Amino acid sequence: MSGSNDLYLRALRGEKVERTPIWVMRQAGRYLPEYRATRARAGDFLTLCKTPEMACEVTLQPIDRFGLDAAILFSDILTIPDAMGLGLVLEEGVGPVFERPLRSAADIAKLGRPDAEQDLGYVMDAVRVIRGELNGRVPLIGFTGSPWTLASYMVEGRGSKEFRLIKGLMFEDPKAMHQLLQIVTDSVIDYLTAQVLAGAQSLMVFDTWGGMLSTENYQRFSLAYMQQIVSALKNDQRTAATPIVLFTKGGGQWLELMAATGCDGLGLDWTVDLATAKDRVGEQVVLQGNLDPTVMNTGAAQVRDEADKVLQAYGQHKTGDKGHIFNLGHGIQPHAKPDNMQALVQQVQQHSAAFHGETSD
Questions:
Q1: Residue ranges per domain, the chain?
Q2: Quick check: is 153 catalytic?
Q3: Among 26, 131, 220, 304, the one annotated catalytic
Q4: Does residue 238 have an active-site annotation?
Q5: Topology (CATH level 3) of domain 7-273
């Protein structure tokens, strides 16, 4: 792929585009043999994340192979808690684990706010290296976990199905919960600002665990802090022009609340009907999604059929619509077939132009 492709950024700004752009969450990952080779060379996942040249290498692998319309920084959502001293380790078969999880209000009170350029400088170095290597081919997306999602890992110490500890803290000591969320939010704002200054051209906030909250608690303990992030970035002249996408997995019932934050786009998981979402918030925000990632483990014919269904669900891009960015409804899975990714990208890039007739230049 050569030349400059700004289709994703134009779409995210709600501008007229000639076809639907496509990128995929976790597009640099274990389903790619070249990624597995680079990770083996690194020795472990955290070394891969913390070595800017290797992070750049794996960021560019899916761009080189598939011709996607955007690159996303290769990193981990738990970089901020790691920089706060919680001792992040990756356990085989378990995933990310913190050696020193937060177990009390006293633990929370001891937390310090990391310096984005000093304590997380390897992330900013990776952004700078990637932007240089991309050389304008496609835009670079920076990202973070949401404050609620980061806090969930920090208190639970690892991934959870019940979220007993974090929810217990929320119900039993909401003051301490808010104190934790505030320091994480302040750190996230610093972190995203630094990514933009290093070269990130759009931002995404992954609220992986917001969907397990009630509506009231989602608004109080997740959305309120994402609102702070959006407001802070939009009110800072250094970051005001950088588009922001919010994604709450399992958050389809709250699209109007999320759109009201002033974000530029909403990521949708595969449980949300795209046509209904378009009717609800499609004039306020760009919609991103939402193919079920499991289809990527099947066959190319199924992938093409399901991709067409997503394009048809959004339908024609009409005046007043903010538009659509094609993605999966969650990250691509390790058992996905690379040939299916190629089929998906080709299907979207070749068949989506028909849905842009009214708004083509």
A1: 7-273
A2: yes
A3: 26
A4: no
A5: TIM Barrel (3.20.20)
